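Take a record.
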Amino acid sequence: MQDLLLLIILSVSLGLMPAFIASRKGRSFLRWWVYGALAFVIAMPHALLIGMGNPMRGWGYKTCGFCRRKVSVKASHCPRCGHEFIDF
Protein backbone atom coordinates (compact mmCIF):
# COMPACT_ATOMS: atom_id res chain seq x y z
CA MET A 1 0.00 0.00 0.00
CA GLN A 2 2.80 2.41 0.87
CA ASP A 3 4.60 1.58 -2.36
CA LEU A 4 1.50 2.45 -4.39
CA LEU A 5 1.09 5.74 -2.54
CA LEU A 6 4.75 6.58 -3.12
CA LEU A 7 4.40 5.76 -6.82
CA ILE A 8 1.35 8.03 -7.14
CA ILE A 9 3.07 10.91 -5.35
CA LEU A 10 6.20 10.50 -7.48
CA SER A 11 4.17 10.33 -10.68
CA VAL A 12 2.14 13.42 -9.87
CA SER A 13 5.30 15.31 -8.88
CA LEU A 14 7.20 14.31 -12.02
CA GLY A 15 4.22 15.35 -14.13
CA LEU A 16 4.80 18.94 -13.03
CA MET A 17 8.03 19.26 -15.03
CA PRO A 18 6.64 18.71 -18.55
CA ALA A 19 3.50 20.64 -17.57
CA PHE A 20 5.52 23.68 -16.56
CA ILE A 21 7.67 23.56 -19.72
CA ALA A 22 4.64 23.14 -21.97
CA SER A 23 2.69 25.92 -20.22
CA ARG A 24 5.60 28.30 -20.84
CA LYS A 25 5.16 27.46 -24.53
CA GLY A 26 1.46 28.33 -24.50
CA ARG A 27 0.01 24.87 -23.91
CA SER A 28 -2.53 23.74 -21.32
CA PHE A 29 -0.88 23.14 -17.93
CA LEU A 30 -3.56 20.73 -16.72
CA ARG A 31 -3.51 18.55 -19.84
CA TRP A 32 0.28 18.34 -19.82
CA TRP A 33 0.33 17.61 -16.08
CA VAL A 34 -1.94 14.60 -16.58
CA TYR A 35 0.07 13.54 -19.64
CA GLY A 36 3.33 13.90 -17.70
CA ALA A 37 2.00 12.00 -14.69
CA LEU A 38 0.81 9.10 -16.83
CA ALA A 39 3.72 8.94 -19.31
CA PHE A 40 6.64 10.99 -17.98
CA VAL A 41 9.27 9.25 -20.10
CA ILE A 42 7.42 10.27 -23.28
CA ALA A 43 5.98 13.59 -22.09
CA MET A 44 9.26 15.18 -20.98
CA PRO A 45 11.07 14.97 -24.35
CA HIS A 46 7.81 15.87 -26.08
CA ALA A 47 7.46 19.02 -23.95
CA LEU A 48 11.06 19.98 -24.74
CA LEU A 49 10.63 19.49 -28.48
CA ILE A 50 7.26 21.17 -29.07
CA GLY A 51 7.19 24.65 -30.52
CA MET A 52 5.44 27.70 -29.20
CA GLY A 53 1.66 27.56 -29.33
CA ASN A 54 0.16 29.76 -32.04
CA PRO A 55 -3.03 31.45 -30.78
CA MET A 56 -3.76 32.80 -34.27
CA ARG A 57 -3.72 29.43 -35.95
CA GLY A 58 -6.36 28.99 -38.59
CA TRP A 59 -7.65 30.22 -41.90
CA GLY A 60 -8.62 33.74 -40.83
CA TYR A 61 -5.11 35.22 -40.77
CA LYS A 62 -2.34 36.21 -43.15
CA THR A 63 1.20 37.42 -42.52
CA CYS A 64 2.35 40.96 -43.27
CA GLY A 65 5.21 40.88 -45.75
CA PHE A 66 7.10 43.69 -44.03
CA CYS A 67 6.85 43.14 -40.26
CA ARG A 68 5.77 39.44 -40.30
CA ARG A 69 2.80 40.08 -37.98
CA LYS A 70 -0.31 37.91 -38.26
CA VAL A 71 -3.31 40.01 -39.31
CA SER A 72 -6.88 39.23 -40.29
CA VAL A 73 -7.45 38.31 -43.94
CA LYS A 74 -10.08 41.07 -44.02
CA ALA A 75 -7.57 43.78 -43.04
CA SER A 76 -6.69 46.35 -45.69
CA HIS A 77 -3.46 47.39 -43.92
CA CYS A 78 -1.17 46.09 -41.17
CA PRO A 79 -1.97 47.59 -37.75
CA ARG A 80 1.70 47.41 -36.69
CA CYS A 81 3.61 48.88 -39.64
CA GLY A 82 0.80 50.37 -41.75
CA HIS A 83 1.65 48.38 -44.89
CA GLU A 84 -1.30 48.39 -47.29
CA PHE A 85 -2.38 45.01 -48.64
CA ILE A 86 -3.24 44.86 -52.33
CA ASP A 87 -5.74 42.18 -53.32
CA PHE A 88 -5.41 40.78 -56.81
In short: The first helix runs from residue 2 to 14. The first strand starts at residue 61 and ends at 63. Strands lie at 61-63, 70-72.
